[in-house]
Design goal:
This protein has 337 residues and is α/β, with parallel strands linked by helices. The chain has a single domain, classed as Cytosolic phospholipase A2 catalytic domain (3-Layer(aba) Sandwich). Helix content is 46%, strand content 14%. Strands 1, 2, 3, 4, 5, 6, 7 and 8 form an eight-stranded mixed β-sheet that branches. Helix 1 links the parallel strand 1 and strand 2. Helix 1 crosses helix 2 and helix 2 crosses helix 6. The chain is globular and about 60 Å long. The two termini are 38 Å apart.
Length: 337
């Protein structure tokens, strides 16, 4: 059976990354699909590390199992957290937790105190969770799958791409380090914040270090918003979406430009490869929820997002799966330019 080869670019977004989990879960059911490279940021880095580790351990089925285990244990580990949705939250939205008084207090606290003050012991439950499930040595030693995780170097303002041999639990945490929630992650003397500020996700490593002709972007943060926000919390949420999408928008513009050059006959002696772009997004789903929902890891919420992701992937497969290896299945000019 001839394999359909695909690179994946996975965006971050806190617990909204469960949507990406659902997309991946459905894609991995396709027996003739072969993942070549994965680039992820923040929650996309978590999903990417789980995906590649699972693939190395037992192919698509094992990857599905690892993804499921990480998301389930993440939810279970926070069952007794004060940041849980209240009954009112579940009645009103099923995702937001802004009726939780502890969330309101935590939100105010994080605007006046840094994690160095209210979390002086640098406790990051994500690291312990990852170390319990993923053998990072296995990711580092394998050569079959390319994994790229994006973080922001605080000192230089430059993008840091952690590649296979550099992938550790700390690298994943660095990619997912929101500075108002966690202390900066130190790796080899450098300090890192969330990669979303500079590459969400970074796609250039997939072009530079693989020769795969097809790339799928799984996007979480909304590009379009149905109205101008007027509440302060909504303004902050929308500004965050725009900020975390800005690097992606610029990179997609560059991809469009290079594609036009190649179509006009210039491929730099074969070094430029025309890439088919595929795209699955949350659409307007996340416009129904505010930023508090990104901290909600209640199992019902994660399952809802996962099933939405599976549904979007199912629809994409039915309409576009046959286009892998042949042509793009989306118009990036219309979406991103």
């Amino acid at each position: 059976m001839k394999k359909k080869k695909l690179n994946l670019a996975l965006q971050g977004g806190g617990s909204h990354g469960a949507f990406t989990w659902g997309v991946l879960d459905r894609l991995l059911e396709e027996k003739d699909l072969e993942i070549v490279g994965v680039s992820g940021t923040s929650a996309g880095a978590v999903n990417g590390a789980c995906l590649v580790y699972g693939l190395t351990q037992g192919g698509n089925a094992a990857a599905r199992d690892v993804l499921s285990e990480v998301w389930r244990k993440n939810s279970e580990s926070q069952q007794h957290s004060i940041l849980q949705p209240t009954i009112v939250d579940k009645m009103m939205s099923n995702g937001n937790i802004d009726f939780n008084p502890y969330f309101r207090f935590f939100s105010m606290l994080s605007k006046s105190l840094s994690p160095y003050q209210w979390n002086p012991l640098m406790k990051n439950p994500l690291k312990d969770l990852l170390l319990d499930i993923i053998d990072f040595d296995a990711i580092q030693k394998q050569q079959r799958y390319k994994l790229f995780l994006t973080a922001t170097n605080i000192r230089t303002s430059k993008v840091k791409i952690f590649h296979n041999a550099e992938i550790t639990a700390d690298a994943v945490c660095a990619s997912a380090c929101l500075p108002h929630l966690f202390q900066a992650v130190e790796i080899d003397g450098e300090f890192y914040w969330d990669g979303g500020y500079i590459g969400n996700p970074a796609m250039f490593p997939l072009f530079e270090q693989t020769r795969c002709k097809d790339l799928m972007l799984i996007q979480i943060d909304s590009i379009d918003y149905n109205k101008a926000p007027t509440q302060m919390s909504d303004i902050i949420d929308r500004a965050t979406d725009i900020s975390f999408n800005s690097s992606l928008m610029r990179e997609m513009r560059a991809i469009c430009f290079v594609t036009k050059i190649i179509e006009k006959g210039f491929d730099d002696d074969g070094r430029l490869l025309k890439t088919n772009i595929h795209y699955i997004s949350t659409g307007d789903l996340m416009n129904r929820y505010n930023g508090s929902s990104k901290l909600n890891v209640d199992w019902d919420w994660l399952s809802y997002l996962k099933e939405n992701g599976r549904g979007k992937a199912e629809a994409w497969i039915a309409e576009n799966y046959k286009k892998i290896g042949r042509q793009s299945s989306c118009d990036i000019n219309c979406i991103f330019l």
